[in-house]
Structures are given as structure tokens and as C-alpha cells.
């Protein structure tokens, strides 16, 4: 069911971007924290669903550039608990990381950072065997 998996990814990503935008806007304009709660929950749940969808394909995703960027974004979000007065700045930094990483060329975004997994990739394809298999199932 490649098309169903792709549709789920698009749906989760749409909810994630919309809810994150509402959350960031609410924080930027000092919205009522109680009213921002559902947006925070929707952002966290949709983000978790996106990670789960990637990991269902391959855990090697975590050791690609795009997987590492997600880990960095999560670390930045955790930093908000330490320096809450900088939450808007941190969230803008998360937006920048997300935008840059999702629009960089695929050869960088999908680059495998762990040599052991890179060695398993097919040298005849710049995407490697695991990416071709993943693309075939998406």
C-alpha cells in the first residue's frame, strides 16, 4: 500500500505544519497558554506520527542527515524547558532547520552518516539500495 503510506505522510505533515504555525503565532503574539495547548498537542502527536512512519520503513533513517536534523530539532525543543524566555527564538530556529533540511538536495538529505549502513548501499545508485526500496514502497 505505497499510496496509503504516502497519503498518511502528507496528512501528518499538513497537520504538523498547520498546528506548529498556530502554536508559533500564538506564542509570538502572547496568546493565552490554555488556548495554545491543543496546538501543542497536535504538533507533538503529528510530529511523533511522522517519525513513526519513517522508522516503520527503516531505523537507518535516524542516521541520515534528515533524521539527524529531527534529533537536533527535538533537542532544541527540549531546551525550551531550560530557557523558556527564548522559546520564540528557538521555535524560529526549528523552522529554519526544518525548511533548509527539507529543501536541500536529496543526495544530502538522504545521505547515510553511519559507515556501516553506507557500506550496504548499492554503489550503482546515488540513492543506494535502501532508498530505492523505500521509494518503491512510498
Can you describe what's shown?
This protein is mainly α. The protein folds into 2 domains: 1-57; 59-138, no CATH class. The protein is 74% helix and 0% strand. It has helices at 2-28, 33-57, 65-79, 87-103, 106-109, 115-118, 128-137. α1 (2-28) packs antiparallel against α2 and α3 packs antiparallel against α4 (87-103). It is globular and about 50 Å long. It starts with a helix and ends with a helix. Residues 122-129 have low confidence and may be disordered.
In short:
With 138 residues, the protein is mainly alpha-helical. The protein contains seven helices and no strands. The protein has helices at residues 2-28, 33-57, 65-79, 87-103, 106-109, 115-118, 128-137.
Ranges where pLDDT stays below 50 over 5 or more residues in a row are 122-129
Biggest β-sheet description: none
| Helical residues, percent | over 70%
* Mean of residue pLDDT values: 86
| Number of helical stretches of at least 4 residues | 7
Kindly name the structural category: mainly alpha
Termini, distance in Å?
Answer: 8 Å
Strand content: under 5%
What would you report as the Rg, rounded to the nearest angstrom? 17 Å
Q: Please tell me the total number of domains.
A: 2
The topology string of helices and strands comes to: HHHHHHH
Count the beta strands: 0
- Shape, please? globular
